[in-house]
Amino acid sequence: MSRTGIGVSLGFGEETTFGEGVAPANSMELKGGDESLTTDRKRIEEEMLSRRGWDLDHIAKGRKAVNGTIGHDLRFTGGWLMFLSHLTLTTPTVSGTNPYIHSQNIGDTPAGILGKGLSVTVNRDGLLGTPADKAWRFYGVRPRAWKFSLEGEGKARSEWTVSASGWELVDQPVAAFPSSPWMKAPSDHATPTPSVQYGGLGSEAPVSIQGMSLNIEQPFDDFYELEASEMSEPYPNGLIKVTGSFTAMFKGTAATGGVFKVQDWSLTPKSLIYTIDGPDDTYKLQLSMPNVLVKAQDPVAAGAGRIFQTVDWMAVGAQSQTFEAVAALTNGDATPWN
Fold first, then answer.
1. Domains identified in the chain, total number
2. Are 51 and 33 in contact (CB under 8 A)?
């Protein structure tokens, strides 16, 4: 057994039936990330008036539970759209021909339940493991939230909050990692798209974007059958929430009358687009929100000639309509799960 987490890998696949447990169809390196999936099984303990202490005969096993997070750097492939699909309960559409555009609706009203989940297999022994070591397979996995961020000079970061219905130990799978470029800043594209475009404006003068983040939360109810020890498929019980923020650096005196001079929630929605370009037109990620409300913090003078401002936003629907947001991933794969 290893004594470190170096070389830990994570494989995942889509189940045909929720909770059945399947072998990985994709693998990801947890470089720049981590996993904290923890297992728990309740213990039914009844206090006895007739004895001192607990009677072993009156202790029983309760329900299983799995909760935790999976964090990783983002590539332009790797099948991570599968997690987003199971979070939003919608299926991506594919258009174009090499490069392909995989469009995942985020804000659409979900159909209910998918009838299937994800299986996540974690090789925790890493580089120092042996063939005799086992891997943890979590089945009936359901993402409940996603955090995305790209700050300064570095790779885009992704973190999923998940639950699962159960777990088992399995033989360690052979991981086949994707080889597509990482999502990162600075961009290697010859003419990169502005990273943030708000109401038609972006990284053009007088602001320079320094970082951006996005959060998606889908409320779920845990669902157990009375006679079952493992969780059935969770059911969505509320409205999906899409929020985020970005940091702008103003040039010169633009902060005194800047684009984002908003000291309270604006009730006039505008469009917002996040873009990360790959080294060429084959690779791109765009997160588009047609209607957002923004709230900007007061500008802060962080140094000579530098004034920073953080802009918080929330996606909304126009005229009481269900809002729509889209994640569009462009790459050379014909299927979104690769």
1. 1
2. no
